[in-house]
């Protein structure tokens, strides 16, 4: 059985998402560890306030990411690299979009976002690197079309580039993604891409898939 990429993917995602924010231009409103107040109300506390979101624990965030984003998209069953690209896209833009994009790129009906057995089978016979590149390229096009691109575009663009680079390396080497180590990153202010490839090989070699 292949090793799960989840721990590495989550580490990379949390480094990109950062801590608490409530940017006036962010439609997500109060957000912590990348979890918006809407998601917190949906999965943790129905009447949650901004203060509740700010007090969210990292454990709560991890539980939401595992169940509602990683498992919901069956990432453990997707090829290395594709799993990370789909997971990060789903967190950033919603699994409704990431799932449909994955299906569309695999030439399957996108009337649903569900990652079905048919999707898993198609993804496994596809060229993983080509699929990763297509997912990330579509994601960047989508983000550039948003009215908030002038505000958040620089960070978003850097994030997509870093995820794409790491996911392509995963697809080539069949490893878990790198987990950038930083506790002082703010949302929408993603870390620089340098060092990502090297972190992948040196820190996550034990997670190589068989």
From TrEMBL:
Signal peptide: none annotated. Pfam families: Glyco_hydro_108 (PF05838). Residues 13-94 form the TtsA-like Glycoside hydrolase family domain. CDD domains: N-acetylmuramidase_GH108. It comes from the Bacteria. This is TtsA-like Glycoside hydrolase family 108 domain-containing protein.
């Amino acid at each position: 059985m292949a090793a799960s990429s989840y721990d590495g993917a989550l580490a990379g995602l949390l480094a990109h998402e950062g801590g608490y924010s409530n940017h006036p231009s962010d439609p997500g409103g109060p957000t912590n560890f990348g979890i918006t107040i809407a998601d917190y109300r949906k999965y943790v506390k129905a009447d949650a306030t901004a203060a509740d979101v700010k007090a969210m624990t990292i454990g709560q965030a991890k539980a939401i990411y595992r169940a509602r984003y990683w498992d919901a998209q069956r990432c453990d069953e997707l090829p290395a690299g594709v799993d990370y690209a789909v997971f990060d896209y789903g967190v950033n833009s919603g699994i409704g979009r990431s799932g449909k994009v994955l299906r569309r790129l695999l030439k399957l009906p996108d009337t649903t976002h569900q990652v079905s057995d048919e999707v898993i089978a198609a993804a496994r016979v596809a060229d993983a690197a080509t699929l990763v590149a297509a997912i990330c390229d579509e994601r960047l096009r989508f983000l550039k079309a948003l009215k908030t691109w002038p505000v958040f575009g620089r960070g978003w663009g850097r994030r997509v580039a870093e995820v794409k680079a790491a996911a392509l390396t995963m697809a080539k080497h069949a490893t878990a993604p790198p987990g950038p180590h930083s506790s002082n990153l703010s949302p929408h202010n993603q870390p620089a891409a340098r060092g990502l490839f090297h972190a992948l090989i040196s820190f996550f070699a034990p997670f190589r898939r068989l």
